[in-house]
Amino acid sequence: MSAMLICASTHHGNTRKVADRIGGVLGAAVVTPAEVTAEQIDAADLIGFGSGVYWMYFDPALVELVRSLPVRQRGAAFVYATSGLPETPLRRYTRSLADLLGGRGFRVDPEVYHCRGWDTMGPFGLVGGMNRGRPSDADLAAAEDYARRLLARQG
Q1: For residue 92, which phi and psi values (nearest 5 degrees)?
Q2: What is the pLDDT of residue 122?
Q3: What is the pLDDT confidence band of residue 120, given thresholds at 50, 70 and 90?
Q4: Is 77's pLDDT higher than 70?
Q5: What distance in Å separates the CA atoms of residue 71 and residue 106, rounded to the nearest whole number?
Q6: Can you give the CATH number for the domain in which 63 is found?
Q7: Each residue of 15-26: pLDDT tens digit?
Q8: Following CA atoms 75, 42, 24, 131 in sequence, which dihedral angle do they give, to the nearest 10 degrees?
Q9: What are the Cα distances from residue 29, in Å, to 35, 46, 65?
Q10: What global pTM score does this model have?
């Protein structure tokens, strides 16, 4: 099985830490949206799409990459993210990305990996940020566990 993780991690490297751990379990390269082509995406059996969450949205480069893909049948995909605050029922940003991936022809795994990350956006920066030290060792171990469950579901 060929796997890759596409990761947009721009501020503190929170999401990249998670992607590296998931990629280690999957034996997958971690690339940025700018480093991957549609042909590479089409050739992979399993692709993770993830970024930090900014004001309840995924990184625009990641979303634009997915939107730019023509609709066709593709392999499996999964979503992962880090954010300063938890996802709210009013704005399901992980579901929005999963739906976009499904609309492009991916079989999207129903389980999402999401953990807190160090956040210095907007007013949080004025007080030194929130969630310093996150993702923690426990968060990264949970990311590895998630990757093992994902592999088991891929069969």
Answers
A1: -85, 80
A2: 59
A3: low
A4: yes
A5: 9
A6: 3.40.50.360
A7: 899 999 999 999
A8: -90
A9: 11, 11, 17
A10: 0.88
Range of the domain at 125: 3-154
Number of domains in the chain: 1
116: CB partners within 8 A, 6+ apart: 82, 83, 84, 85, 86, 131, 134, 135, 139
> 3-class secondary structure for the chain?
CCEEEEEECCCCCHHHHHHHHHHHHHCCEEECHHHCCHHHHHHCCEEEEEEEEECCEECHHHHHHHHHCCCCCCCEEEEEEEECCCCECCECHHHHHHHHHHHCCCEECCCCEEEECCECCHHHHHHCCECCCCCCHHHHHHHHHHHHHHHHHHC
pLDDT the model gives residue 57: 85
149 and 26 in contact (C-beta within 8 Å)? no
Structure tokens at 47: 């692709």
* Confidence category of residue 112, pLDDT binned at 50, 70, 90: very high
